Amino acid sequence: MPLHTLHNPLHDALQRVSNATTVGELSRLHREAFAPASYASSGVPAGLTPLINQLHDRLIIQTIRCCLAEMKAAGMGDPPVPYAFLLFGSGGRREQSLASDQDNGMVYRLPPEASQREQEEIAAYFRRFGQLVVTKLSEVGYPPCQGNVLASNSRWNRSLQDWDTMFREWNETPTWENIRYLLVTGDGRLLLGDDQLFARWKADYHQLLADNPPLIARCVSNTLRHRVPLGLFGRIITEVNGKFRGGIHLKNGLYLPYVNCVRLWSLANGITATGTLERIDAIRSMHLWEEELCETVQRHFHRIADLRLLAATQWQDDLYESSSYLQLAKLPRETIGMVRQAMKVALYLQKITSRYEGDR
Question: How much is the pTM?
């Protein structure tokens, strides 16, 4: 299917979302734009992920604006201090598929002269704001992240000073969960709010990594936790029971091994980009990998992104879980061959990434 035949409806959707003023309208537009059935009959064209992520961004921004209006109408006024609304996960990387949950947070700046009571009032405002955004995004069509990386969770919604304190706690107590939080934060992207505040938040994060090199080694086991389902002699290992029999978990088995390895190389070398493709560009410019490897990884990652969109259309339901599974039996032989080669590259990435574990 030619790409332009879907581009026009999605471009139209961008405009309609920008004009929407209620959560109900946004929910309807979300359903219309991302319903798997609307793609299943005609196929998913290559290279659609950037446009789909523009639409996700626009939907989330308009939902936040609806929440701000509701806060004001309820007598809570405008945000009392500068703030930045953050996206993490695939949203932070601009890699969301048709089905996406929400991974988000907030940072706000406390005035240095604020009294204890004023600080508590500011925190209460953003606590209510975060809870409202998570609720309304769920109504629009973004289920809450199972890992509770949400602006309604005080861990992910705090002042700049408290974020810095938490960064230092992660370094001083590098438990599995704290390292997971550290890696999640590495994908943080500003969606709405104060640019300078976000820049300071991001600089604090990367300074923590630069000042504490052993942290990178502690990230290795978390980075490599997803097993690539490729067995002996290049046999792809599929699910053997249940609804997803004959399929592979595309997200855990192929997409995340690429994302996680590229992220760790980036964080270890001071690369501040959050998108996987942009990170590979930076890795190339720093000559951390051979040119051929960079090209190979980028080429496979483009195809994996397309397969993630395809996977969301293969199941006769709208369940978020289903969108992560790919039915191999429905793929052409050459595509299965590409998946096999991409898995081999994923295993190689995990091998070279494991070397960081020796840098404790």
Answer: 0.94
